[in-house]
Specification:
Layout: E1 15-19, H1 48-58, E2 65-69, H2 79-87, E3 94-99, H3 104-113, E4 118-122, H4 128-135, H5 140-153, E5 158-164, H6 173-183, E6 186-191, H7 209-219, E7 223-225, E8 236-240, E9 246-250, E10 263-266, E11 271-273, E12 282-283, H8 284-289, H9 294-306, H10 326-329
Parallel strand pairs: 1-2, 1-10, 2-3, 3-4, 4-5, 5-6, 6-9
Antiparallel strand pairs: 7-8, 8-9, 10-11, 11-12
Helix pairs in contact: 1-2, 2-3, 3-5
Bound molecules: S-adenosylmethionine and iron/sulfur cluster.
Length: about 325
């Protein structure tokens, strides 16, 4: 293996998140504008062949974990074909997908057959009215059905991502706790981050992780932290004291995990980002399309990783929200 991707703080980067589109079939308010979204031109999107070449370049640098995301990755046509290409690359030991679940049910088997095993389905509310308020679209039933289909088809683990928002989703927490216990699906609560397209994030809207744990512990059963299988995972995992039901917390605002970060991202239009919150990007697409050699691309990747900041500054007065909202970065 060539020298790994290590930044100036000693963090080793083995985890690449690949956005395959900025398009989406719903409009979560914490991510996208309600209407008139300016999507990327289709010819700006990296082709599956370009994504595959990029992955083949980073695997010898130590990358062994991939996650496909977007936008909504399943609105990109023929996604199972990309999964198949990537899962056949020797050195990749883990491919995950993050999806809003609307189209997952109908593609689950094809994705599984292509080699996908891990899926995170996003669902912020078990109350359909709250779902509609968050997403500004219909589709609740399909998402819930997809969660069950994922289990039936054999995906493991199946996790649910739920963004926690004050004055909106508090009442969903306890029902989600029961859902985790009844289904065996881990619910991962994510603190609302300042990456919305409307620039309407406020600290007061963040429902903090410790509040969620306190509520579940007092209303269902005590939650006990469990050891991390992967020390670089952003989530802290808990189990109810009676051993039934798991809860994860991604407390990016109240307990940043930047010091363990092993992730970098490529956007659907081929820009490398060393952090969700970074202000600079490296244009990999121009290199891929401009006949750059693998070594030239590796040099660009190394420069990007070397320039990674120590951490995000959400909790400081100097924080500036990046221009790209979540749907265009790839969450
Ligand atoms: N469309 C897919 C989905 O929703 O799962 C994949 C892309 S989405 C950007 C990835 C994850 O980011 C989702 O779980 C979503 O809830 C989360 N997310 C989006 N905007 C967020 C924000 N401002 N703060 C916290 N999480 C956010
Ligand atoms: Fe679409 Fe996912 Fe953003 Fe919701 S969070 S608008 S599903 S990309």
């Amino acid at each position: 293996m060539s020298e790994r991707l290590i930044d100036s703080f000693g963090r080793v980067h083995n985890n690449l998140r690949i956005s395959v589109t900025d398009r989406c079939n719903i409009r979560c308010f914490y991510c996208m504008p309600a209407d008139h979204v300016q999507f990327m031109d289709r010819q700006e999107l990296l082709t599956f062949e370009e994504i595959e070449r990029f992955v083949r370049i980073v695997v010898p640098l130590g990358v062994n974990k991939l996650r496909l995301t977007g936008g909504e990755p399943l609105v990109r046509r023929d996604l199972p074909q990309l999964v198949e290409k990537l899962s056949s690359i020797s050195g990749i030991r883990d491919i995950g997908l993050t999806t809003n679940g609307i189209l997952f049910g109908e593609q689950a088997q094809a994705l599984f057959d292509a080699g996908l095993r891990r899926v995170n389905i996003s669902l912020d509310a078990l109350d359909p009215a709250v779902f509609r308020e968050v997403t500004r679209r219909e589709g609740y039933e399909k998402v819930v059905e997809s969660i069950h289909t994922a289990k039936q088809v054999g995906f493991n683990p199946v996790k649910v991502n739920a963004v926690a928002i004050r004055n909106l989703t508090e009442d969903q927490i306890v029902p989600f706790g029961h859902f985790a216990r009844d289904t065996g699906v881990e619910i991962r609560f994510i603190e609302f981050m300042p990456l919305d397209a409307d620039n309407a994030w406020e600290r007061d809207k963040v429902l903090f992780g410790h509040e969620i744990i306190e509520r579940l512990s007092s209303e269902i059963a005590p939650l006990i932290p469990i050891g991390q299988a992967d020390p670089n995972a952003p989530a802290t995992d808990f189990e109810f004291a009676d051993g039934i039901g798991r809860i994860g917390l991604i407390a990016s605002v109240s307990q940043p995990f930047c010091s363990q970060c092993n992730r970098f991202r490529i956007t659907a239009d081929g820009k490398l980002r060393n952090c969700l919150f970074s202000m600079e990007e490296t244009d990999i697409k121009s290199l891929l399309r401009g006949n750059a050699t693998d070594d030239e691309i590796i040099a660009a990747i190394r420069n990007s990783i070397a320039a990674k900041n120590e951490g995000h500054e959400i909790n400081t007065a100097s924080f500036i929200q990046p221009d790209r909202p979540m749907y265009s970065i790839g969450g």
